[in-house]
Amino acid sequence: MEFLQKIIISGLMNGAIYGLVALGFVLIYKSSSVLNFSQGYMLLLGAYIFWFFKGSLKLDLLPSLLLAMPAGFLMGTLIERIALRPLIGQPLISMITITIFLSLVLEGLVSVVWGTYPLQQVHIFSRSSLKIGNIVLTTENLFAFGLALGAMLAIIIFFRYTRLGLAMRGVAEGHQIMQSMGISVKRILNLSWGIAGMAATIGGILMGSTLGFQLGLSHIGLLAIPAAFIGGLESPEGAILGGLLIGLIESIVSGYVGYAAGVPVTFIVLILVMLIRPYGFFGLEKIERV
Amino acid sequence: MSHAAYYPPSGIYSDSYKKDMRIIKTRTQWVLSIASLVFLFALPYIPFVNSPYLLRLYIGVGITVIICLGLNILTGCCGQLNIGQSAFVMVGAFTSGLLNSHMGWPFWACVIPAGLASAFVGIIFGIPSVRLKGLYLALTTLGAQIILTWIALFGMPETAAGFSVAPIKLWNIVFDTPKKFFYVGMLFTVLMTFFAKNLMRTRPGRAFIAIRDNDRAAEAMGIDIFRYKLLAFSICTFYAGVAGSLLVHYMMWAQLESFTLQESIWYLVMIIVGGLGSIEGTIFGVIFITCLKELIFVVGPMAEGHLRFLPIGAGSGLLLVLIGGMAILFLIYEPRGLAHRWSLVKAYYRLWPFGY
Lengths: 290, 356
What we know:
heterodimer; A: 290 residues; mainly alpha; two-stranded antiparallel sheet; 2 strands; B: 356 residues; two-stranded antiparallel ribbon
């Protein structure tokens, strides 16, 4: 029983981070209907940028965190500016394909600059832990959980109540219409990639401090995709719930079946959800029989 | 794909639909086609270009061309993304290998079942996504890559560890050296290329293009989108299966490590560099990327050895940056790929000296 409890807790805690990364995925999908396959690699680069400030420049924790966030934002906007802006008005398939190739470039960049070996571990939080009954929660986990929930709330409010959020939702519907309504598609896309880059960086730092800074971090992107889809590609709250669900499934399956089974089973769940509820649990149901 | 620079050969008047649809239109084209086929099959006997290294490269190109042709029919002609092509190559490879090593079937009896097994698995993964509008096939094929690799790793001890496969035999000829295998590989490459080229002027081929260009209009014209998307996907995976079968009988060894997600993405790079929806472009793309890869396998370690400031593993990173970056550049600046360049060259030749 204790094992199950442990698994559930760690699953939920990891799930919060998956949810956070899935939020970035949803954000880009919501503003441009692009499935961003490079989200995991943005996370990787974001984590390594943080490591650059903390490990190479030997800055303190707080300044490096404060520097890493805008750097993550800048990374997102740069990616959009260089790779995606020239494709505005082109078929969607080319934008999605470009994100696949972006993941190659980002992974390559990281290994050209930092090498393929894991970097030195950086601990962000004290190793202290909280005990409730016989469940042990580390500060790290709690912080990640709180951050993910906070980011979700911020993004939901942003999309529902601000003009910019409304403009982003409009851009997802159609570039031409929004442009003719006087809303700059370029600026909107740029901003949403920036925010997604920032979300990925936060996720990367949190994951990096627990798993270590290594190329394997990008695999979280693989889990964020089913998380975003199961929750519904249009819905921030769905992304978080999907993330929690995926985290739970992954940790239960890896606990009882075997470590390697975690990711494949989440994809089996993804395909089942696709069969039963093609728009996810919180997604916008667009019935179009084509 | 529309060719802005498409000019028919001079003096060719297509006065019937059948004539307009011919693949080979002029006598020069006949001569060139036959000459290039003869050249292709004489290649292992031409000095200077028949070293074992080059022969292996040719065979690799031939098998990859088959894989990428399937992918190009799906992605380029039908407009669906597949980022798990190498998993379907794996299905074909293991089906063929297991049939051969356990049941003792010869290669010639394995190759079609391998393709069909791949297509069957492809349909299982395709059905959830082609029901939806949008590019969700990309998600399920990513899932296929991960799930199928996992099944191969834990489902069977043979597939996890790798097993040996008998070489191709025809009566008493054993195709176990690159020089001999070259003929089998090229035979299949030429046949599959011809099939793909032909497919594009049949009813399904036209339906694929209609779906890619505008799915609503296609549906309104009475094209059953679900059926044709699934058909395109099963053709794509059938190609992958056949190529996988060839691959294991060439390597005489089936192992899991040759079928990774990265391979799948490389196949996508190849068709994008070559030209989406173009059969000859696929061949250009495969040759181009294969040459580039070989070049970087030489340059990468050299750079790592001489430039001291680079960390360990930078060579492989360089390869990724170059290949991914080139695919991005092609998508932005030359979305029609090398095939478009080729058609420009042809147009220049046909219009010369009045090319304006």
